[in-house]
Amino acid sequence: xxxxxxxxxxxxxxTADIIDPRYPxxxxxxxxxxxxQIRKNFFKIVTDLMDKEHDETSFPLLIPEEELAKExxxxxxxxxxxxxxxxxxxxxxxxxxxxxPTSETAIYPMFSLWIRSHIDLPIKIYQKGSTFRxxxxxxxxxxxxxxxxxxxxxxxxxSSPEEAEEQIQTGIEIYKQIFDxxxxxxxxxxxxxxxxxxxxxxxxxFDTVFPDGKTLQIGTVHNLGQTFAKTFDITFENKxxxxxxxxxxxxxxxxxxxxxxxxxxxxxxxxxxxxxxxxVQVVIVPILFKKGAEEVxxxxxxxxxxxxxxxxxxxIDDRDIRPGKKFFSIENxxxxxxxxxxxxxxxxxxxxxxxxxxxxxxxxxxxxNLVSSIKDLLNDIxxxxxxxxxxxxxxxLKLVEDEKDIKESIKEGNIxxxxxxxxxxxxxxxxxxxxxxxxxxxxxxDEDTDKVCVHCGKKAKHIASVAKTY
Amino acid sequence: xxxxxxxxxxxxxxTADIIDPRYPxxxxxxxxxxxxQIRKNFFKIVTDLMDKEHDETSFPLLIPEEELAKExxxxxxxxxxxxxxxxxxxxxxxxxxxxxPTSETAIYPMFSLWIRSHIDLPIKIYQKGSTFRxxxxxxxxxxxxxxxxxxxxxxxxxSSPEEAEEQIQTGIEIYKQIFDxxxxxxxxxxxxxxxxxxxxxxxxxFDTVFPDGKTLQIGTVHNLGQTFAKTFDITFENKxxxxxxxxxxxxxxxxxxxxxxxxxxxxxxxxxxxxxxxxVQVVIVPILFKKGAEEVxxxxxxxxxxxxxxxxxxxIDDRDIRPGKKFFSIENxxxxxxxxxxxxxxxxxxxxxxxxxxxxxxxxxxxxNLVSSIKDLLNDIxxxxxxxxxxxxxxxLKLVEDEKDIKESIKEGNIxxxxxxxxxxxxxxxxxxxxxxxxxxxxxxDEDTDKVCVHCGKKAKHIASVAKTY
Lengths: 470, 470
What we know:
homodimer, alpha+beta, Rossmann fold, Translation Initiation Factor IF3, 3 domains, seven-stranded mixed beta sheet, globular
């Protein structure tokens, strides 16, 4: 679709007024007004879903070194990418403060104060805000950044491992709904032991695939077991009067979901925004001649008001520029639906509607059904984006039965699946052979399967995959 | 009203589930679920007003030392309170990065890239987020903190000084509306030369007064003139084809507005929230007996649904605890209106309503006017809080005509006003004599006034004030 994806992506986020990457710190950009509105709509979707299950809170951005260092595995996982505050004014601080890379070690000391008894459980909270990673790899706006400005992280504590396990499923379901709203397809994998979240029992991850064939991790859900509870002494008195450590989960998503929607749906003309996050869902372009201009504008306003009233985000584009230039910028900004209305249309009591997703032009009669017809079209646009994206995604999944075919399949741009016995050694070996990243296992096989591990030939336990990753 | 205000305030923000100050860094606290909802409602008020005039954006939280240091006066004003990031992972950074104390030096390098011509002007943007101050003074939750989590700052650039001056008025008007929404009274002063924002031409400031008689600065509006434009080289080609520096303003408010609403309206029983920011505006308490419980609950739900539909934030409190305990916690949380409904009320087709602001109990008939009657009551509550707060505030303003009376008036807990010639020397001297802070001038006098400066006896130009401050 787009020949040089990387160039296209960098270009579109600047020209469409999303992010200005020219801020004088590498890996940190400025959210421009249009981008900010997309982000705001994304947050609304996330918040509405999260609020059903969690309480929103806000924790400090700084974490004392002592807290961050308490969980050995956790700090080891992050020690190379933490920004440290060491000075306050002209003075050296007594204790270094970390810019949170993630907030487990900010939140769990407070859990330890809040939780006393089983009646305090479950606790389910979330927060949204910035986290920081001192990335040493090549940074890219929204994809690999040093300030993750739109990180939404949830943290839960439970009185039983079963309840924590259920929460993992809830987290996964919420994330599916978020990705579905943006028509972003995904593969869910259980990350292998050697690539799970530092400190977790296990990690479930969502990966999507970009037009250049590389996968991007867009969400993770972690079962933390009792590891952090033991480190931060988070105990509760259970119904039998005994003290027990809580069972915890955490999960997070970020700006990368927005980046994915932009990357996956966009085309040569620019953005193609899913209606759910489009700052403007419908733009009305009055086609004006000297004669009858007023009537046309009146009707445009009437339609605008009717759509607004029904919660459609709509605006009139009456900029005094050439229609060609106007349509070009409307397309570049990815506005899902364009309405054109001129004197001749008005006379015929019709409007012309043009879809951004497939360019289809059609006419609608101006009557009592107009608003619902336009809303139907917006739903169609979403469904079409969803179908197209999933079709393409599913085509990029390729199951190979011979280890020798893995490299070729990856070269073709596939997420390459294979049967795997589940052993760490085999997994790491397959990763090495493929020369790419081992995403994990996406499906468990029946015990009586006749499939065998592509590497060792023993009975397979999972379907797993490798892919080029960001 | 409250004997030991400081103790009361610390107590209420913890017991009412607003902020947990026990986070292991001094001056940084956790927004708890109820507090977070108050903050969210506050942000909604601010955002709705700001969006009419500005575009929302988001700039990085870190500022390179080189940028922060460019404006000499500005950096001097902040150098003792900036947190510095000096390490990334295990490495020392090449350049120190500041945790923004405010964002002029983050934003204006971008303005310099964005602005070329008069058609790019005006630019009016805002952002909300955390800023940081390494406070060496005694910290207090929400009042003097090291992470200001709810800072909303606006930045504008204009093609003429007149337009910038108009923007100052717009900023002041917006802030008045915000404070009015929360029924927080204020005095607007032009800060004296020696206390203006570092780098500004002049600073207009809003101060409110707390129950302990101390004033708190709750908002500032700055005319930056061309100082930063010259530092950051922000020029535009004017209509005559000449290059000119832009004229800038900036203004900011924070968590302190929420703290003020809590402090000013609260009483011995706890919070008294203005309806505009109350997470729950109406709580319905079903009074249940075995007989008729179902009918009562049905009616409660019916009333709840009708209120919800009309955008009233309402919930049913059916916790199985003693009524006394329930009422205590409802009052403590500051819920503006409590509805009680039992079988006898249902039979009489009435509900009992109890106002939090004045404790008044009354009955309302359950009919088609019920929702609008309840909304009227919420408006009355707002108006009453507003009137009470302003009455008290106005009483705390005292104009003295003799310099000797200043100290005594301050001792009585007043914001003490006096006539002032406008000279810096006199102003500083009056500040010294009063032993408190010089807030600035709140009113300009006519040229033919017969009032004289309380210090030097020359003709007065302003009414100015001193007060105990936070």
